[in-house]
Write a structure and sequence with these properties.
Two copies of one chain form a homodimer. The first copy, chain A, has eight helices and nine strands. Chain A has 219 residues and is α/β, with parallel strands linked by helices. Chain A folds into two domains: 3-78, Winged helix-like DNA-binding domain superfamily/Winged helix DNA-binding domain (Arc Repressor Mutant, subunit A, Orthogonal Bundle); 86-196, Rossmann fold (3-Layer(aba) Sandwich). In chain A, the strands form two sheets. Chain A has a seven-stranded mixed beta sheet with strand order 5-6-4-3-7-8-9. The first copy, chain A, has a two-stranded antiparallel ribbon with strand order 1-2. The two termini of chain A are 32 Å apart. Residues 214-219 of chain A have low confidence and may be disordered. One nicotinamide-adenine-dinucleotide sits between chains B (91-97, 117-120, 136, 152-155, 157, 161, 176-178, 194-195) and A (99-100, 103). Chain A binds a DNA duplex (30 and 30 nucleotides) through residues 9-12, 35-37, 46-49, 51-52, 54-55, 59-67. Chains A, B: Residues 81-180 form the CoA-binding domain. Chains A, B: Modulates transcription in response to changes in cellular NADH/NAD(+) redox state. Chains A, B: Homodimer.
Chain lengths: 219, 219
Amino acid sequence: MDIEQTKIPQATAKRLPLYYRFLNNLHTQGKLRVSSKELSDAVKVDSATIRRDFSYFGALGKKGYGYNVEYLLSFFRKTLDQDETTRVALIGVGNLGTAFLNYNFTKNNNTKIEIAFDANDERVGSEVGGVGVEHINDLEEKLGDISVAILTVPSSAAQGIADRLVNAGISGILNFTPARISVPSNVRVHHIDLAIELQALVYFLKHYPLNEGEVEEDQ
Amino acid sequence: MDIEQTKIPQATAKRLPLYYRFLNNLHTQGKLRVSSKELSDAVKVDSATIRRDFSYFGALGKKGYGYNVEYLLSFFRKTLDQDETTRVALIGVGNLGTAFLNYNFTKNNNTKIEIAFDANDERVGSEVGGVGVEHINDLEEKLGDISVAILTVPSSAAQGIADRLVNAGISGILNFTPARISVPSNVRVHHIDLAIELQALVYFLKHYPLNEGEVEEDQ
DNA sequence: CGGAAGTCGTTAAAGATTTCACATACTTCA
DNA sequence: TGAAGTATGTGAAATCTTTAACGACTTCCG
Ligand SMILES: NC(=O)c1ccc[n+]([C@@H]2O[C@H](COP(=O)([O-])OP(=O)(O)OC[C@H]3O[C@@H](n4cnc5c(N)ncnc54)[C@H](O)[C@@H]3O)[C@@H](O)[C@H]2O)c1
Ligand SMILES: NC(=O)c1ccc[n+]([C@@H]2O[C@H](COP(=O)([O-])OP(=O)(O)OC[C@H]3O[C@@H](n4cnc5c(N)ncnc54)[C@H](O)[C@@H]3O)[C@@H](O)[C@H]2O)c1
């Protein structure tokens, strides 16, 4: 496998799944070629940034032509490991957890929520979105070799569950609780803090007024 | 009002709500003072970054002492406009929309979802999490002067609804759909793309192995 | 009261990311 | 075939962000 491809910048890495998705759309639409400019319009990322991002992987395009959609797509499919499915566990089948289970990130995706856990006896044993809900007491026993977890428990339970996940050998946690959890340095946590996202948007609206001439930016 | 406080960096602005929340926690716990180091441990942001962030607002702390929790909190309350509630509309009362309505970002927050819209006649007229659901046809009529919208409709409907929101005078959209919507330059859109967040986490896990000695980072 | 310990605010350095701008090479079409 | 057009890949510059380091001042405690 392509080990150590001389470190892609993090900012680039975060955009890769986005590129991949739009490339997929183009492919489905039957498009054969695409320029960085077109892609830029679609994903709202500066075209120079896109070219730079792609260039980290070598020369994927052709001057005067652009990029071959099929080739680019198959390249990213490999790069993003789209062929092997990553199995995911979800902890906390409440409002948010239920939404995720019903959605299950199914479309053009290499991840699948395979098992869910909850502390509420009424939920345990049921199925949500085709995923069975187990009791949190059985976490260690039933997690198996799943290495990624989505955390949607009440924030008061977050650190405790995180500790247990770490003990059970998890590698990555997508944390939706407002709690900033502590984990050993070999475990990766991404926080998605929805309340903060909303507050930040409100703050930007009040303090960074956009002019009729500026271009809006995301995230 | 504190107009033009000589532009806070965006990276700092995004952390303010996080600081505010933890300050609030400390205050509730009865803590009187806090150092940048303590805060750093709690929010997982480097202490130098925290001091730098605070310094954009002037000298809020005292050398050798730290920060007075009450003072800092009340300062941020003003800065983040925590006293005036921002009214928010939610479009698309499906899996995700329902979760948000039930949650409603109630705790220590200056935002409130006041009205929801959906196209499904069965949902219209009902209440979810105490918020009435209106028909999407009545969007323009019932939106009033609400300036922020959360978009949780199917991605195929996203651009169309966004256009209508813009026409109805919206200023900011928190977009949860995978569609990258186009809006005039005076409207701000923040994308929260959950599928991409999950894929990015998986990518990082495979390609950026963490060593036992490194410290994990978020987002 | 005085010295040790603690902590800020900031200068400066380092690091990361974006953007510009253009030489280069391919495509297209007459 | 050759001229005009197009769009990449990248060096260099600009911008933004983080981190280290430390002087200045405060608190703490014997
Ligand atoms: N719902 C939202 O829109 C929203 C928005 C922002 C943040 N969040 C955060 O996401 C998290 C979940 O929110 P929610 O609205 O889904 O809450 P919820 O109360 O609806 O769901 C939490 C679920 O976790 C289960 N649970 C509780 N303790 C547990 C434990 N120890 N082990 C396993 N399961 C346990 C509960 O039985 C419940 O089903 C919370 O931390 C919340 O702050 C939610
Ligand atoms: N649920 C998730 O976990 C999840 C995860 C990632 C992304 N998303 C994205 O979030 C969006 C919503 O997801 P969901 O799972 O809640 O979908 P959903 O199908 O459960 O909900 C969509 C809702 O929008 C309503 N709707 C459809 N067309 C409308 C229109 N024109 N105007 C107003 N309302 C309309 C539907 O009646 C439905 O209630 C989708 O774009 C999805 O891709 C969802």
